[in-house]
Write a structure and sequence with these properties.
Distance between the termini: 65 Å
CATH class of the largest domain: Alpha Beta
Radius of gyration: 22 Å
Order of helices and strands: HEEEHEHEHEEEHEHEHEHEHEHHE
Strand order of the largest sheet: 4-1-5-13-6
Structural class: alpha/beta
Helix content: 40-55%
CATH superfamily of the largest domain: Periplasmic binding protein-like II
Number of domains: 2
Length: 264
């Protein structure tokens, strides 16, 4: 009888332990491009840092989730999500109609304009006439890539696609391309403010194209993961409401945090 009681007690303890684990938040694998400061990069010690990293850490804390990172080049982020390498795209993406065909998005978190960067004194502008016969570097599968394909490539501008943004800047410095097109904050923090970007500047103002640039930037999930989608949206709403998102954003950027979800 004593053995029987011991077994019952052990089973009860095991069940209690399992319930405690189940009471924790979800385990979330996060795909992240780590070559895109100030949104996500690595410091000298190899630790992840940046705006998207801090937002995701805050989301994971809010959900009491066990989060892990899966480093992935930008142009592989969506395919990695759809093949279940991870559960969430942590590198914020412009919420566009084209991407929304295959990916579910959280409510928009913030908005970042797109601008051209070129050597100082080049007199280049983000127009077909100014860039004809020039080579422009873009991050593959980004909204900058889509815009350049629609507005530049048909008019004699050569586009050069890259898997990560840092490679774009390297080729710009070496003269392999004449200009780069990317979101303005990434260009400002990740290149123009550095010693490598000393001889470069924005060429022309922010571009406008609501259809291609979307209603803001959000996190991507599989369409089938409706419960996780709702959990992350709820966490983001709470972080907006208590000012956490604003505080994180202003540590790294001059971007506009979007207070309400845009209408679809």
């Amino acid at each position: 009888m004593k053995v029987h009681k011991s077994l019952v007690l052990a089973l009860l303890l095991a069940c209690g332990s399992s319930m405690a684990i189940a009471a924790k938040g979800p385990a979330i694998r996060i795909g992240i491009d780590t070559a895109y400061p100030p949104f996500a990069s690595k410091n000298a010690a190899g630790k992840l840092q940046g705006l998207d990293i801090d937002i995701l850490n805050a989301v994971c804390k809010k959900l009491d989730a066990q989060c892990s990172w899966v480093e992935t080049p930008f142009d592989k982020l969506i395919s990695g999500l759809l093949t279940a390498r991870y559960d969430l795209i942590g590198s914020s993406l412009n919420i566009t109609e084209e991407r929304a065909k295959s990916v579910a998005f959280t409510d928009p978190m913030y908005s970042v304009p797109v601008q051209l960067v070129a050597a100082k004194g080049s007199n280049l502008q983000p127009t077909p006439a100014a860039l004809k016969s020039k080579r422009v570097g873009v991050l593959k599968d980004s909204v900058s890539d889509a815009w350049a394909k629609a507005h530049l490539e048909p008019y004699g501008v050569t586009l050069v696609q890259y898997p990560t943004q840092d490679k774009v800047y390297l080729d710009l410095i070496s003269g392999k391309i004449d200009a780069s097109l990317q979101d303005a904050q990434a260009a400002y923090t990740g290149f123009l403010k550095t010693a490598f970007g000393n001889g470069y500047s924005f060429a022309g103002g922010p571009l406008q194209d609501n259809a291609l640039f979307g209603a803001g930037m959000g996190l991507g999930l599989r369409k089938s993961d409706t419960a996780l989608h709702q959990q992350i949206n709820d966490a983001l709403k709470a972080l907006k409401a208590d000012g956490t998102l604003d505080r994180i954003a202003h540590q790294y950027t001059q971007i506009t945090v979007l207070k309400a979800a845009a209408t679809k």
